[in-house]
Amino acid sequence: MENKYAIESNNLSIHYGSYTAVKNVSVKIQPQKITAIIGPSGCGKSTLLRALNRMNDFVPGCHVTGELFLQGQNLYGNQIDPVEVRRKIGMVFQKPNPFPKSIYENIAWGARINGFKGKMDELVEQSLRSAALWDEVKDKLQESAYALSGGQQQRLCIARTIAIQPEIILMDEPASALDPISTLRIEELMQELKKNYTIIIVTHNMQQAARASDFTAMMMIDDNRAGGVIEFDETKKIFTRPSDKRTEDYVTGRFG
Amino acid sequence: MIRKTFESEIQQVKDEVILLGSMVEHAILGSVEALKKRDIAASEKIMAEDKEINKKRFAIENQLMILIATQQPMAHDLRLLASTMEIISELERMGDYAKGIANINVRMGEEALLKPLIDIPRMAQIGTSMLHRALSAFINEDVEVAKSIPVEDDEVDALYNQIYRELMLIIIQDPKSIERANWLLWVAHNLERVADRVTNICERTIFIATGSFSEIKSSDDEFWKGQHR
User: Fold this and answer.
1) d(CA B143, CA B93)
2) Which residue of A has its CA nearest to B72?
3) Which end of chain A, N or C, is less surrounded by CB atoms within 10 Å?
4) Is B58 buried (19+), middle (13-18) or exposed (0-12) by CB count in 10 A?
5) A36 — contact with chain B (CB < 8 Å)?
6) Residues of A (186-215) whose Cβ lies below 8 Å from B
């Protein structure tokens, strides 16, 4: 199988017990691009995102059917180690969740337990620079991460993710708890990061999806309340001439 | 969900476009009527009223800008607002053609018309009728009507060709008539352009409704083809 895509799902469905939350998602995510997942509340955006790095494994009763390929490997295959999956596919959450440690340790800790043997100071600096945070924290690396502002904490979490050098970065509403300036800073950062990483972002903010992403997946629930991707296309098409009436209604603010 | 505030503001913009359109229609018909009657006072009034047309266009443009900034239109809404921006500029230019015709009448002064006007008022009639229906199609986003109107441009082009030949013959027979013939040729040219701009409005309407750009036809091409034949 060719690795033309960063990650590719084939009829991926996510079930909680007998209830199907997300049904038959087949998407091909382009490498080094930003793909936004949009859709009304409860349509399964976050559930789908979490399935991409097997975060749903922690949810009791949750099981996944279908296939999910990263570089030709089915991430739900038998011999796959979920920890290894999460090393390759990092995640940034809605609320910044730094460790209750120093700024330095927030970066170093994950790298260390992942067996990083290089020069730690360099990795910390490089990761903080990539997350556009270095200049603001270089003089207080030993201070608690909790002393940072929300926007800075979120960039620290991104730096922490980058330090592990993943292939893909998943972002679940990464800016929804941030003020507009911090939000724009995160969006600018995403544009920098996509030079090296593939980014998939869940967002409720349509303008954010329109501004910041290259591709957009529109999700919606069906009559059985199972979420699915109803339209997947270039962002510029989704927001100027979507093919599906439901997408049109959603992006023009008439539904959802 | 219906976005009540936004939709009523869009409706207001559409109402203003119709108003602008009727001002332009009035100016075009009036300018030709004044020329026909050699009524210079009426022409001067039309020239003054063009300022109102320009003012209205800028007022609508401002309204559109505010809607784009405050409502973040997407998809169909975005196409509608962006295209309306184009349409009001087309309308304003049509107003300029009417002003141009009025100006010709004023500059002709005491000079009599070279010939009685028959085809020129017909061009104005067809052009304004096309405009009127094109704006209805815009309001109703009626693709079929929008597609059918530009076909009528052929008739306007044919009239223009006819006037052109007629005036050339008059000039050949009597070279002293050249200035008066030229004035009428300009009038006919302005009216020919009116119909072209109606075609642009129809193209925009189709884009708003379908999301795809399609150039219906350029009557300029048709005209020049006619000249080479």
Assistant:
1) 24
2) A207
3) N
4) exposed
5) no
6) 206-207, 210
Structure confidence by residue, pLDDT tens digits, A157-208: 999 999 999 999 999 999 998 899 999 999 999 999 999 999 999 999 999 9
Sign, Cα dihedral of A135, A140, A144, A149: negative
pTM over 0.80: yes
CB neighbour burial string for B16-27, b if at least 16 within 10 angstroms, e if fewer: bbeebbebbbbb
Chain A 225-244, residues with CB within 8 Å of chain B CB atoms: 239-242
**Which residue among A207, A251, A256 sits closest to B75, beta carbon to beta carbon?**
A251
Spell out, as residue ranges, where chain B has pLDDT lower than 70: 1, 217-229
Q: How far does chain A reach from its first CA to its final CA, in angstroms?
A: 38
Whole-complex ipTM: 0.74
Q: Do B211 and A253 touch (CB under 8 A)?
A: no
Interface membership of A180 toward B (CB under 8 Å): no
Residue pair A219/A190 in contact by the 8 Å Cβ criterion? no
Q: Does A254 touch chain B (CB under 8 A)?
A: yes
